[in-house]
Write a structure and sequence with these properties.
Layout lengths: L2 H11 L20 H19 L5 H19 L3 H29 L5 H10 L1 H13 L4 H27 L3 H10 L1 H7 L2 H4 L1 H9 L2
Helix pairs in contact: 2-3, 3-4, 3-11, 4-5, 4-6, 4-7, 4-11, 5-9, 7-8
């Protein structure tokens, strides 16, 4: 796939950082209101994004707003350990939406995207290891966080895949096929270092 086409798909295909979905994950995991807080913040993110970016798909607008908010929050955190923890939170949202929610959605539409998932996991192996190490120090389990954020990730991926289909004038099944057929090129454009440089730098710097 030509890089220009890759970027066109990426604009709606890669909802880069599931910023809101992890905002309250660790801090409020044992709080029964955690899911409500996530939902409220997701709604606010969408409102902010669509107000600022009126001429692009909703998922792309949310992506841009999430990147801006994430960068600002990491830059404002003076404590190295807390900054690393925030970066790990953001990474897991990004990771889960692409290796769990996207393939689950596409399976429901009759299309496997194993090549995409495999390529995504491979290219993010180092970041995955860093995030695992950070969570281990915090005695946190990313699988538990996933149980909180899954409903919101599902909403995000439905919006995301719908935008891909609408932008390319294809069905949802064909949108999944498009991702799978162009997996390698797309994943290269989706690397965390490109999608969210601030998170990438924070993970890389974590000791």
């Amino acid at each position: 796939m030509k890089s220009g086409i890759a970027r066109k798909i990426l604009a709606v295909a890669a909802f880069g950082i599931a910023f809101v979905a992890v905002k309250y994950g660790i801090q409020a995991f044992r709080d029964y209101q955690a899911a409500d807080k996530v939902e409220q913040s997701l709604t606010q993110l969408q409102a902010d994004a669509t107000r600022k970016h009126t001429d692009i798909p909703v998922s792309e607008a949310m992506q841009r707003e999430a990147i801006e908010q994430t960068s600002n929050k990491l830059a404002a955190e003076p404590d190295e350990q807390k900054r690393a923890a925030r970066a790990a939170n953001f990474f897991w949202g990004f990771y889960f939406i692409n290796v769990r929610e996207r393939p689950e959605f596409c399976d429901e539409h009759g299309t496997g995207i194993q090549s995409f998932v495999g390529a995504f996991e491979k290219i993010h192996a180092s970041e995955y290891a860093s995030a695992k190490t950070i969570y281990a120090r915090m005695a946190e389990d990313e699988s538990k966080i996933y149980t909180i954020i899954k409903p919101q990730l599902r909403k995000m991926i439905v919006q995301d895949m719908s935008d891909i289909a609408a932008t390319n004038k294809i069905t949802l099944k064909q949108a999944c096929e498009l991702i799978e057929e162009n997996a390698e090129a797309l994943v290269k454009e989706m690397h965390l270092a490109k999608m969210q440089p601030a998170v990438y730098r924070a993970l890389s710097a974590a000791k």
